[in-house]
Specification:
The structure holds two protein chains of two kinds. By secondary structure, chain A is mainly α. Chain A folds into two domains: about 1-260, ABC transporter involved in vitamin B12 uptake, BtuC, CATH 1.10.3470.10; about 290-395, no CATH class. Chain A is built from 18 helices and no strands. Chain A has helices at about 1-5, 10-35, 45-50, 50-65, 70-95, 100-125, 135-140, 145-175, 180-185, 190-205, 210-225, 235-255, 265-280, 285-310, 320-325, 340-360, 365-370, 385-395. The mean pLDDT of chain A is about 90. Chain B has a single domain, classed as P-loop containing nucleotide triphosphate hydrolases (Rossmann fold, 3-Layer(aba) Sandwich). Chain B has helices at about 1-10, 15-20, 60-70, 85-90, 110-115, 120, 130-140, 160-170, 190-205, 220, 240, 245-250, 255-260, and strands at about 25-30, 35-45, 50-55, 75-80, 85, 95, 175-180, 205-210, 225-230, 230-235. In chain B, helix 7 (about 130-140) packs across helix 8 (about 160-170) and helix 8 (about 160-170) runs parallel beside helix 9 (about 190-205). The longest helix of chain B has 16 residues, at about 190-205. The two termini of chain B are about 30 Å apart. Classes of the chains: A mainly alpha, B alpha/beta.
Chain lengths: ~400, ~270
């Protein structure tokens, strides 16, 4: 059954929702990466909450003009206008008053949202029955999604992706180094607004699927997830789009498979699951990897200290060090070095001298940068280089390398 | 109008020098809030020279550079680059910002940072070609960072980060290099690598201007100095302008006499 949902075999509406959500997820993940890199993720929260008054006003206007009031394109247009005003308020407050950005975001977010709720209440009391569906913009409602709605989402998502593709270089430059970007003639203020406008576009087209309260999750969680897997901006954009799309696809399929489940929140939870897996298991930045690295590092430190102590005939007091040496067969229970222990200790001491030379010599700079007091020198230098260094050190030759 | 101000302040740059100067700043005033950090400053950089901008902390050294580049908006004044307004000559300038201005945990590799220098060449949509990568690698080589191309930038030491910034500027193939404290907090190896590159730029006829804080190296690194403490205090060849009198004026007695004695100053 769930497989049917994943492969789009669960009926017309479920298929529309799944495709629409997936496109939205990709667009949100890609756009969100630049928000995250510019450290402006929270602005998207203000943007999304500021859509609500626009939805209300657009509904009222359309009813006044004799329309149905529920035409999606009209409502989204209203949402875009009011969230653009909200966005300008945030940047205006930040630039021309002493308010910091987080305070400005808090103020704009709550005022616009409050105003929007008031408008929704007014609409409910005046146009009995006809307002049904507007509160769906809060948490998304995919039940009655139409083909046209899916088209709006697909078209908006595609345009957003195209804009990101064109502007990726200046946006990356700006996010990494705004002063340098300005020195290259990029208008920092305007480019910031462009990034926000892209986030705004994603927010507006996502209102129908996940709603204004949760859209921020689709913008932020995928890039944060992607950050665990890569050290490159271009890869991060791709991975983030992939995560966003995957989460939306699986989430939409899940909610189609169990119809009582709300689509938006399920997508967010799926996205969070991907985040959780990355947080724990990502190869370099994941928690498990970091912990294992720490443990291994600690072992190596103790081992090295122990060997150097053995080589110089100093007593070892640390129990952990003694146990490590013993387990490796380098010392006996009383802390006296075994034969292999003595050899390793001599090698450690010799390496120490070699490193000293390497670090003092400009010619070995890139090797010296790897110095951490633990590394075996032959992992960094070639045999020839080592014997050259040994010659400079002098003393007994032919220590095993 | 800017010209008259300059003439009145005694710098008397002739119009033709001005037109050819890589960087001519006229009447530049920048303020943060109500306090001017840079006040009515004129500066004429000589082509093919290496100029140190010197002054105490908070004297407006970095701000002057940023205003010249349009990074901060001046209250008054203008900068001419090779005789033209900034907008049409921006591509001839390469800027090396302070290391601290950047988040070094940013997901980018050393080579990617250098490729940012090719921003103008690559434009918005052009694909990255092998010859772009080659150029970026060549720039890394000039600063001795070839082996680090694929590292994440956060793994570098401060000095290495500074050299990557310099490599990015080299990739721009500019004629005027503006550096903000390139030697601040770097190791000796980096300092030597950077000064070697800067001197080779000068011998190629390029112009270098650097905010500099170490008075002991002014004489060996630079041929011109520009002393500033909100206002311009002195400008000229090291031999003429780098005098104890000018330094005392600029630093307002904040330099100990012993310090000044060690500087091999020009007789003044």
């Amino acid at each position: 059954m769930f497989w049917n949902a994943l492969t789009l075999q669960l009926g017309y509406n479920a298929t529309l929702v799944t495709i629409g959500a997936t496109l939205l997820g990709i667009a949100a993940g890609v756009t969100g990466t630049f928000l995250y890199l510019r450290k402006r993720a929270l602005v998207s929260d203000a943007i999304s909450h500021a859509t609500l008054p626009g939805v209300g006003i657009a509904f009222m206007l359309m009813v006044l003009l004799g329309g149905d009031g529920r035409a999606l394109s009209g409502l989204l247009f209203g949402a875009a206008v009011s969230s653009w005003i909200g966005l300008l308020c945030v940047s205006w407050l930040t630039r021309f008053t002493r308010l910091s950005e987080d305070a400005a975001i808090g103020a704009v977010l709550s005022v616009f949202f409050g105003f929007g709720i008031v408008l929704l209440t007014v609409i409910q009391t005046m146009g009995a029955g006809r307002a049904a569906g507007l509160e769906g913009f809060l948490l998304g409602s995919t039940a009655g999604m139409l083909f046209n709605d899916a088209l709006v989402i697909a078209g908006g998502g595609a345009l957003t992706l195209l804009a990101v593709l064109i502007l990726r270089r200046p946006m990356t430059l700006l996010a990494f180094d705004p002063e340098y970007a300005a020195s290259r003639g990029i208008n920092v203020g305007r480019m910031d607004l462009v990034i926000m406008a892209l986030a705004l576009a994603v927010t507006v087209i996502g209102l129908k699927v996940v709603g204004l309260i949760l859209i921020v999750a689709m913008l932020i969680i995928p890039p944060v997830t992607a950050r665990f897997w890569t050290e490159r901006t271009d890869h991060m954009v791709l991975i983030s789009g992939l995560c966003g799309g995957l989460a939306a696809w699986v989430g939409a399929a899940l909610s189609a498979f169990a119809p009582a489940m709300p689509t938006g929140p399920i997508i967010v939870l799926t996205s969070f699951a991907l985040f959780l897996v990355s947080l724990l298991l990502a190869p370099n930045r994941g928690i498990v990897a970091v912990y294992l690295r720490h443990v291994r590092f600690q072992r190596r430190v103790h081992m090295r200290q122990g060997l150097l102590a053995l080589a110089q005939g100093q007593p070892i007091y640390e129990g952990f060090t003694l146990r490590l040496l013993q387990r490796a067969g380098l010392s006996q229970a009383d802390g006296v070095a075994t034969d292999s222990g003595r050899a390793r200790a001599a090698k450690a001491l010799r390496d120490e001298k070699r490193w000293e030379l390497v670090r003092a010599d400009q010619a070995f700079e890139s090797a010296a940068a790897l110095y951490d007091g633990l590394r075996d020198i032959e992992t960094v230098l070639t045999g020839d280089q080592i014997s050259e260094i040994d010659q400079r050190i002098g003393g007994p030759q032919g220590v095993a390398t | 109008m800017g010209l008259e101000v300059a003439a009145n302040r005694g710098a008397t740059p002739k119009a033709e020098i001005l037109a050819g100067s890589p960087l001519a700043i006229r009447g530049m005033t920048v303020s943060y809030g109500q306090k001017p950090v840079v006040f009515s400053v004129d500066m004429t950089v000589a082509e093919g020279s290496m100029t140190a901008i010197i002054g105490p902390n908070g004297a407006g050294k970095s701000t002057l550079l940023k205003a010249a580049l349009g990074i901060v908006q001046p209250l008054a004044g203008e900068a001419l680059v090779f005789g033209k307004p900034l907008r049409s000559a921006r591509h001839r300038i390469a800027y090396v910002p302070q290391r601290a201005s950047v988040d070094w945990d940013f997901p980018t590799r050393v080579i990617d940072v250098v490729l940012m220098g090719l921003y103008r060449e690559l434009g918005l949509l052009r694909r990255l070609r092998p010859h772009h990568l080659e150029k970026a690698r060549a720039c890394l080589k000039r600063v001795g960072m070839t082996d680090f191309a694929d590292r994440q930038i956060g793994q570098l030491s401060g000095g290495q980060q500074q050299r990557v910034f310099l490599a990015r500027a080299l990739a721009q193939e500019a004629d005027l290099y503006l550096l903000d404290e390139p030697f601040a907090g770097v190791d000796a190896a980096t300092e030597k690598a950077i000064i070697d590159v800067l001197k080779s730029l000068r011998s190629d006829g390029k112009t270098v201007v650097a905010v500099h804080h170490d008075l002991t190296t002014v004489r060996s690194y630079f041929d011109r100095v520009f002393l500033i403490n909100t206002r311009k205090m002195a400008e000229g060849a090291v031999d003429e302008a780098f005098t104890s009198e000018n330094l005392n004026q600029t630093y307002g007695g904040r330099l100990a006499t012993g310090q000044i004695d060690q500087l091999e100053l020009a007789a003044g």
